[in-house]
């Protein structure tokens, strides 16, 4: 089901709707958290959440968009579903996963320049995102929420979930060492974001802060190794 994340600590504050401050970090929520959705919308999203098939999820969400065109929760479900409904059993294609867009900052060498440009544009300008921004009372807060949630999903799937970045011994992951192991790829991503002059300064700052916050939340606040690597790479959060 759709979540609403605190724009400061990235924790789910859906149950704190109407609160002025995040119950976890105390950060101001402002108008980032909208009024509760109707019972009908919540029931529909529960049905979506219960489905295993991305194709069926997409079909139900498309119908929901027509029925509830002013629902930010429905629009956000569409946004984060991405193109998952296009996945094929015949070939592995991670690009259907929405958070894969951030791979341009982790492994840019694996993409053609035109593909990087397309993914960068989608990151900030996709019609599904624009729909959510129009429905949000506070577009800056929503954009921060979106980038933080996207970063959290990327870290979980493509950093923590990767044997390339998470060392394994006899097939066993060492989760307790994740903050140390993932500091290197995460700092490399932050450095690449900082160096991406095709983003506006505001976009770079927002993306970097969102990614850092997501890393801190996903790794239980253990950012000492990441901070050290950032310093060595000259990465500065502005």
Question: Could you write a compact summary of the structure shown?
Answer:
The chain is mostly helical and 238 residues long.
Helix content: 40-55%
> What is Rg?
18 Å
**Average of the residue pLDDT scores:** 87
Q: What is the strand arrangement across the widest sheet?
A: 1-2
- DSSP, total strands: 2
The number of helices is 10
Strand percentage: under 5%
Biggest sheet features = 2 strands, antiparallel
Please state the structural category. Answer: mainly alpha
Shape annotation: globular
Low-confidence stretches: 31-35
Distance between the termini: 33 Å
What's the order of the H and E elements?
Answer: HHHHHHEEHHHH
Q: How is this structure best described in words?
A:
The structure is a single chain. The protein is an all-alpha fold. The protein has ten helices and two strands, in the order H-H-H-H-H-H-E-E-H-H-H-H. Helix 5 packs across helix 6. The protein starts with 38 loop residues before the first helix and ends in a 5-residue tail after the last helix.
